[in-house]
Amino acid sequence: METLTVEPQRRTAPRRRPPSKRGRAARRNLSAYGFLCAALFCFAMFAWWPIVKEVLLSFQSTNLVDPPTWVGLDNFRTVVHDPAFGQAWRNTLVFTLLALVCGYIIPFAVAIVLNELRHARAYLRFVVYLPVMLPPIVAVLLFRWFYDPGPGLFNQILDFVGLPTLSWLDSTSTALISLVIVSTWMNLGSGVLIYLAALQNIPGDLYEAAELDGAGIFKRIWHVTIPQTRLILLLMLMLQIVATMQVFIEPYMLTGGGPENATVTVAYLMYQYAFVYGGNYGAGSALGLMLMVALLAVAAVQLRLTREEK
Amino acid sequence: MVNTTARPDAAEQTPGEKTTVRRTGRTTSRRRGAWAEGHTRTIVSPLELKSRWGRKIYWTLLVFVLLVFTLVFVFPLYWMVTGAMKSGEEIAQMPPTLFPKHPDFGVFADAWKLFDIGTLLKNTLYYAVGAWLFALAVDVCAAYALSKLRPMFGNIILAGMFATLMIPPIVVMIPAYITVTDVPIFGWHLLNSPWAIWFPVAANGFNIFLLKRFFDSIPNELLEAAEIDGVPPWRILVSIILPISRPILGVVSIFTVVAIFKDFVWPLLVLPDSEKMTISVGLSQTAGAVTQNQIMAGLVIASIPMIIVFFFFQRSIMAGLTAGSLKG
């Protein structure tokens, strides 16, 4: 199916009874904005305005009752001097890196294997996407039970195999990794299916040519599969980073940021400022602004890379 | 570009697409469907698969993948269901039992009462249906205007809508919350009101992107005849465009409903009243006060609607996923 490109200018062929061009254009614009007005309202109030408001709030102090006062960089000072600040960024970064290894490389490998299989494909696709459909709260509470140091499933399995048991969520060394495992289990499916779709678009004769040139299986993956899916890989890299930067429900439900701030993430710290420690909206917004700038930087890098690809 | 990704197994319907590997006379294939040459060629060539070693490795790999997938993705859910039916002693027992000794179905009724799941499900369903109707109406109109009516500044508006995709909602959680407590200009207070869910859901750049892309692919010739006859734009939308757009409307609908069921942070903030909570938030608030098997029972009940949706709309969901990923 070929898509027709739509030229921006209207066709200039003379029509019957044209009520003057300008009048028609005005009518068109009027009806177009009629269709747009509801969406513009929703976007303006609940998507665009909050972004502006975040910047404003970062430099203000407000309690939602009295009019806000300008406080310059005070909020940023509060945030930076908080002992949890460095820890939160470190955790978010570590979480993102771990989640990239688990949530970016593994799905790609899984998709390559699935694409080779000729049987049970429907079943495997269904099963891998099942956790994605569950509300995250289900996954999180289920794993909380698995992580239980006593009768929890994971320690029971370790015990059964004869390995030493772990204290999962209760130790500073394993708490963060435990959260990454939950996240990966929840979100692996969408990555796998997206890669699978990309792999199915690779023309088979490329592999054939590689085979005739004597490339083995790993060489074929390296020289055909990866270059052919590079754009999707780039896009998914960014989506993954953006997704893990906003980790919230895992620390909120599983650890409350503990033990000893080992699992405090930036998003969770933001929530705490605004909704736990007596409504410090300014500090929370300042932190949110930093996160927003970080994400926009990631997006800008990704756009540059995509442009160069093309 | 031909988009076969919407039908994941489209690859298997082209028997004419023979690979250049010549068939040796004897065909040993009793399972013609799976081994047919029509299967699009992937990394490993059919010839390599048919060698003695190739077959051995293939079957070992298949069994291994099936086992691992079932263990990793299905077994936890099995553990959840059986865990709900175990008694308090049995659930704390070490080593754990694989099957509950005396499956107790009463626990589901207990969980229903303790979590007040009736109210929670009713709320969530109400939010989901409302969000679905509202978001679809708003976004379809906007995408139609941007795609076919092409007003002045349309491209700027579109860029502004896509820009929101770069900024995840949680980053602006605080200002968004403040906006909901006091909507600028109008001064509405939307806490505990369903509109706190519905307005932001409609401001979804991804929906606009999907719908607009589909409308762009509808040839203008289809609409021009009606335009010349002086049919108003809304009639064109309702009687020409919507009937052909059924697949994409399905995708957007499902994604909207699923998003409402899955969302956690936003309803946690804007629906603090326990009578107004969604199922996810409600479960999280009560989980500390009930026993382990009751929690599991609650989770099972909360999972059922989504699993049913997935079962029936699998195809649309997969199509939507892949359509979204081809942005690049």
TrEMBL record, chain A:
Species for this entry: Streptomyces tabacisoli
Protein name per the record: Sugar ABC transporter permease
The family this protein is said to belong to: Belongs to the binding-protein-dependent transport system permease family.
Residues annotated as transmembrane: 30-51, 93-114, 126-147, 175-198, 231-249, 281-301
Residue span, ABC transmembrane type-1 domain: 89-302
Gene Ontology CC terms: plasma membrane
PROSITE patterns, alphabetized: ABC_TM1
Keyword entries, A-Z: Cell membrane, Membrane, Transmembrane, Transmembrane helix, Transport
Bilayer disposition of the protein: Multi-pass membrane protein
Residue stretches in coiled coil: none
UniProtKB/TrEMBL annotation, chain B:
Membrane topology: Multi-pass membrane protein
Residue span of region Disordered: 1-34
InterPro entries listed in its UniProt record: MetI-like (IPR000515), MetI-like_sf (IPR035906)
Chain ranges passing through the membrane: 57-79, 125-146, 153-177, 236-261, 295-313
GO terms for cellular component: plasma membrane
Location of the ABC transmembrane type-1 domain: 121-313
Keywords of the record: Cell membrane, Membrane, Transmembrane, Transmembrane helix, Transport
Biased composition (Basic residues): 21-33
UniProt-listed GO biological process terms: transmembrane transport
Compartment list: Cell membrane
Keyword Transmembrane: yes
Cited SUPFAM superfamilies: MetI-like
UniProt superkingdom: Bacteria
Pfam families the record matches: BPD_transp_1
Record bears the keyword Cell membrane: yes
PANTHER family xref list: ABC TRANSPORTER PERMEASE PROTEIN MG189-RELATED (PTHR43744:SF12), ABC TRANSPORTER PERMEASE PROTEIN MG189-RELATED-RELATED (PTHR43744)
Family, similarity comment: Belongs to the binding-protein-dependent transport system permease family.
Name of the protein in question: Carbohydrate ABC transporter permease
Lineage: Bacteria, Bacillati, Actinomycetota, Actinomycetes, Kitasatosporales
